Fold:
Amino acid sequence: MKRSAAEILREYGPFPGAERVNGVTYDGEQVWFASGDKLNAFDPASGKIKHTIDAAAHAGTAFDGRHLFQIADDRIQKIDPQTGRVVGSVPTPAGGASGLAWAEGMLWVGQHRNRKIHQLDPQTGAVLRTIESNRFVTGVTWVGGELWHATWEGDESDIRRIDSQTGEVLERLDMPGGIGVSGLESDGGDRFFCGGGSSGKVRVVRRPKRGAAAGD
Structure:
């Protein structure tokens, strides 16, 4: 396993009226984050809030290229970002949900205390397969065919690349002590957007180039 310190490139927030940052996603132009009772979109260049939607936004957030998906208690709601209207929903897996990602036409749901990642059918919510983790799972994201997820347990948090079939940890980025990752999203390149929970911040962490991380 490759292991290195996470390189934090930038911090956004805290944001007015948003006490928490839960789920995080990226629509190619704006970064969206869940703050309990709202979805908020900000410009990653300026850090300024551009748009808000009144919606239950308790945990992970994802974007499929057209719609937002947002964990709201025991449901995953499908939301039109232009109107804020909920256009569909599916149940979360038994045991709840924390992180959320969209990849290859499927939803990927992280479970916190159950230490699992589930692949879900977005039409029915049926669990198609499950990957086990050895730590509390928060955010989940896919980039370049790689599955990454965040963990947060006690005062320790990291971002890890795992084998999507076996769950084996292939690479790990350790966050500084006391800094947690609640939501996780890739920009499709070399940046991760990381929700900071009760800090109210979104942090940018560099995604290592292949072979760039130090050996364990």
In short: The radius of gyration is 16 Å. The first strand starts at residue 2 and ends at 5. Confidence is low (pLDDT under 50) at residues 212-216. DSSP finds no helices and 21 strands in the chain.
